[in-house]
Design a protein that fits this description.
The structure is a homodimer of 402-residue chains.
Chain A lengths: L2 H5 L13 H4 L23 E9 L4 H18 L31 E6 L1 H4 L37 E7 L2 H14 L4 E9 L1 E2 L28 H7 L15 E10 L1 H5 L3 H8 L36 H5 L10 E2 L2 E7 L6 E11 L6 H11 L6 E11 L11 H4 L1
Antiparallel strand pairs in A: 1-3, 1-4, 2-3, 5-8, 6-9, 6-10, 7-9, 8-9
Helix pairs in contact in A: 3-5
Chain lengths: 402, 402
């Protein structure tokens, strides 16, 4: 699909049809894998996601180091569109690469690795002798309001976030990393995201989530480096020097009660969110990027943006300036066998400097007061420390495992 | 991603990296919804699929007619990129369109409707008084070898196949059709396909399935009309005049035992398929489209293409000329909770003039003899009669319901 395609259809809704640079354009051929930070965070959000959480079956830090070396080598290849090894070397051996991405371009593939709290401490046990090097905020978030978590879809010792323009390229990456990890890790849970919801650079157009609303208008932007340093990248506050330049990822599988949402009248939907549905404008404006005026009042004295509206409760103004980088994806996993309703929603992914002071603090407020709670439920949760980027010749989390 | 992207990476595997016209190019802005045949069959296969099977909750043919009128109206709009109704009409009413595709281009969306055997006869009962107008080959396929079917993911009174370049556009279509059908139908099962596997026109490049092999090299081509008339479109043999110009769709969710396949040595994988993995050439050739020579022998007298190779058993030469139009998609639904292995494979979709004489006859042979059976299992099955196309001013299956 091209930007031109967005312009080719007229008719009654032609005004809605902006040239869709977001979906068409800034998808570079290959996103650098090596760098000061891992890719897939500040990178302009690609359209598709394959996410996997793994549990360890290995027993030592030395084995973990070997796994990370192998994952690093493979990822450096896949992100430039190469197979992880010869797809047709020894005819008497299993092919090193599984092959389904042969011939496909890199599709802006990024592979982002994370370390769960249980990698360091499991059941109180310093399982790999790494406890003393644990990033200081990598401790379980604990129960939060608004959640009913499926433990089989939550947590994990490690994670891999593969984002790409082509889902086959993202799937190939996760599958081959899982295969390389055989004997060292097993897949704990997996999630596909079919469409990005958050803009993560100043140039990306805001797309819509499955509630039909533009999502992420006031998101942090990966290309605003001062904001990223302030809110996302771990800095000098971190006693673990090896972790500086890293960040923390929180994932939440947020199921939407779509059928019930779809029965709501437009005005109620807009009051729940605090924005107009079609334009994305705040209720205090007419265009998407107009300012959110939380103090504006109706003639009867009531606030224009209701006290329980999502944008009021989630935004930085009433949260002491807390901001996070959202990078989520819409998902559907078919129908819920118990109710016959669609199992669909938002696989929420966010990055921040301190998950306890950022995401958890926001959710403690949102989970209690947000008008959106009537229509959503958090069904899985995971926290990962995202090590800093890898420099050529090094490997994932070398500073931890050196 | 662009065709140029495929050329930008060199290195050891540069030869594999053909300009990927298949993924980049021929995706028209909008595929005509109205026509002599339904779209989504001969249409060049789009990259993404959302498929839903529905069960009826309505009781009369008159109600079915109303549903089909409403579905027709909505589909005609969505396939040109319009919402099904005003997204911001009456603020005191629920929005007519759910909104998540607002601003997205049509993305070559096609919506293809089908009628299951149980729409006509359920438990021996002529439930809607339509039995006398049932297409003659719309009778259950019966048990076939190689299957272990999940009944909750099989069959259905109706189906909707939504294909598009953008999965959010395809999902939006199915969701809004389900919503329009509230009170008349419920979703029975749903399947996402993330990547097309079959080329369906002479110009599309062959892509790879999750076994890493090019899939569909010798598929029928939707743009070869004589072949389509001979093998796909129902003609004068059909006593139900209203159904002429229709076709039959068979879907099979074919789970691949990926972990076990990935442990197989290259030569064995190639003997199972009968083709080379990297090039896609038959074992009797060097290039993908070289002829499949089933009589060629090795120096020891054994056939070059083994007797149980998939392309020998599935191809027309040893099947009395049987051909079908395949239009399948790779899928993954996460991990299998019982084994921890990936639940991934091929959501096989095919079209033909007579499912009993075409798909079922092939599968009776393949299910017993195909070397591939060690690595696959059919876990769902469904059969649908696909009514002929709709002309402007008419509606789906008008000939059946007039």
């Amino acid at each position: 699909m091209t930007a031109a395609a967005g312009l080719a259809v007229g008719g009654a809704y032609a005004g809605l049809r902006e040239p869709d640079a977001a979906r068409a354009a800034p998808e570079p051929v290959a996103v650098p894998f090596y760098g000061f930070h891992q890719a897939g965070i500040a990178t302009p959000a690609q359209d598709r996601l394959v996410f996997a959480a793994f549990d360890l079956t290995l027993d030592t830090a030395a084995e973990l180091r070997e796994l990370f070396r192998a994952w690093t080598r493979a990822s450096a290849k896949m992100t430039v569109g190469l197979p992880v090894g010869s797809p047709a070397g020894d005819p008497q051996a299993p092919p090193v690469d599984t092959g389904e991405a042969l011939g496909l371009p890199p599709s802006a593939l990024t592979i982002t690795f994370g370390l769960g709290p249980s990698l360091f401490v499991q059941g109180g046990r310093d399982r790999l002798g790494l406890r003393a090097r644990r990033p200081r905020s990598l401790t379980p978030l604990g129960p939060l309001p608004g959640e009913q978590l499926d433990p089989d879809r939550s947590d994990g010792d490690l994670c891999v976030q593969a984002c790409a323009g082509d889902p086959q390229v993202a799937f190939h990456a996760v599958r081959n990393l899982a295969r390389i990890g055989r004997g060292a890790v097993v897949v704990r849970w997996m999630q596909l995201g079919f469409g990005r919801t958050s803009s993560t650079t100043s140039k990306q157009q805001t797309l819509r989530n499955l509630m039909g609303f533009k999502d992420g208008t006031n998101n942090l932007r990966g290309d605003r480096e001062a904001d990223m340093r302030r809110h996302v990248w771990v800095g000098g506050e971190e006693p673990q020097r090896w972790f500086r330049g890293g960040t923390y990822m929180v994932t939440r599988r947020i199921r939407m009660r779509i059928e019930s949402w779809d029965r709501g009248v437009l005005e109620d939907q807009e009051r729940v969110i605090g924005r107009r549905k079609v334009s994305g404008a705040p209720l205090t404006g007419t265009r998407e990027h107009d300012p959110v005026d939380l103090r504006a009042r109706n003639s009867d004295g009531s606030p224009v943006i209701p006290l329980d509206a999502h944008i009021r409760l989630a935004g930085p103004a009433e949260n002491g300036g807390i901001r996070i980088l959202r990078r989520g994806y819409s998902y559907t996993d078919g129908t819920d066998p118990q109710t016959g309703e669609l199992d669909a929603g938002l696989f929420f992914v966010c990055f921040q400097r301190d998950p306890h002071r950022q995401f958890a603090r926001l959710q403690r407020r949102l989970g209690v007061r947000d008008a959106l709670n009537e229509y959503i439920q958090h069904t899985s949760s995971a926290l990962f420390a995202i090590p800093p980027g890898i420099r050529r010749g090094s490997f994932l989390a070398e500073g931890l495992l050196a």
